[in-house]
Design brief:
The chain is of the alpha+beta class and 78 residues long. It has two helices and three strands, in the order H-E-E-H-E. The protein has helices at 11-24, 51-62, and strands at 33-38, 41-48, 69-77. It has a three-stranded mixed beta sheet with strand order 1-2-3. Strand 1 and strand 2 (41-48) form a beta hairpin.
Length: 78
Amino acid sequence: MTTTKTKTMTDAEIDRAVTEELRWDPRVDDSGLAVSAKNGIVTLAGYTDGYAKKLAATDAAHHVAGVLAGREREQEHR
């Protein structure tokens, strides 16, 4: 029997990974967004240039390993 260990990411690691994912994703302008993580739940706060970019930011955050859930706080589109 083979046992594999899964590394659990800390909230700080998740925060950095989501920030990098947002920076990398061409659909997202991350300059108006702030990321925070607590217990694997990521919160995106700030502003985007439209509803499609808001959805893209949320989608990008969910691509990061270790993210259990996401939520938006005051993430408005202009």
